[in-house]
């Protein structure tokens, strides 16, 4: 199940991603098991109007296709940003692999950005996002889907 704006989940993601989280302005999309156990999620920070930063963290198999779709639909479609940024420590090979498989491209490397080496800054432009094209699969207004997903996190 996907949960929106759960403060506790935001804090868990921020701690794992080694970043901050302000529940008054940052947004959270998270996933839980059928028993309600936290699996992982995305926090969005630093919204500028044209760009937003995302931080992701979770346990094995936390990123369902629905969660990933919402994670791109919210900033690109609902907020209308042009670019999403995501930072990853160079030593975090698992996160780098996930981010790259999602379609993010390495934009910049910041030397001495983490204790383990450079901080890698990945980005994705709206027009390059393959996930936004899947909107019809996951969002169907007016009851045209068995379990329609509609997300409004506010801006």
List keywords for this structure.
single chain; 155 residues; alpha+beta; Aminopeptidase; 7-stranded mixed β-sheet; 7 strands; 26% helix; globular
Task: Report on the architecture of this protein.
- By secondary structure, the chain is of the alpha+beta class.
- The protein has one domain: Aminopeptidase, CATH 3.40.630.
- The protein is 26% helix and 33% strand.
- The protein has helices spanning 7-17, 65-79, 93-102, 135-138, and strands at 2-4, 27-32, 38-45, 51-58, 83-89, 105-114, 117-125.
- It has a seven-stranded mixed β-sheet with strand order 1-2-3-4-5-7-6, sandwiched between helices.
- Strand 4 (51-58), helix 2 (65-79) and strand 5 form a beta-alpha-beta unit.
- The chain is globular.
- Residues 140-152 have low confidence and may be disordered.
């Amino acid at each position: 199940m996907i949960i929106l704006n759960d403060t506790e989940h935001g804090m868990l993601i921020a701690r794992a991603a080694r970043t901050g989280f302000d529940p008054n302005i940052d947004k959270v999309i998270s996933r839980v098991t059928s028993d309600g156990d936290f699996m992982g999620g995305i926090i969005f920070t630093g919204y500028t109007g044209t760009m937003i930063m995302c931080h992701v963290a979770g346990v094995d198999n936390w990123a369902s296709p629905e969660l990933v779709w919402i994670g791109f639909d919210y900033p690109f479609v609902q907020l209308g940003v042009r670019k999403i940024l995501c930072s990853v420590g160079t030593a975090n090979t698992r996160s780098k692999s996930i981010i790259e498989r999602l379609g993010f491209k390495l934009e910049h490397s910041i030397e001495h950005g983490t204790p383990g080496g450079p901080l890698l800054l990945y980005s994705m432009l709206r027009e390059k996002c393959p996930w936004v094209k899947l909107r019809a699969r996951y969002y169907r207004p007016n009851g045209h889907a068995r379990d329609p997903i509609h997300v409004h996190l506010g801006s």
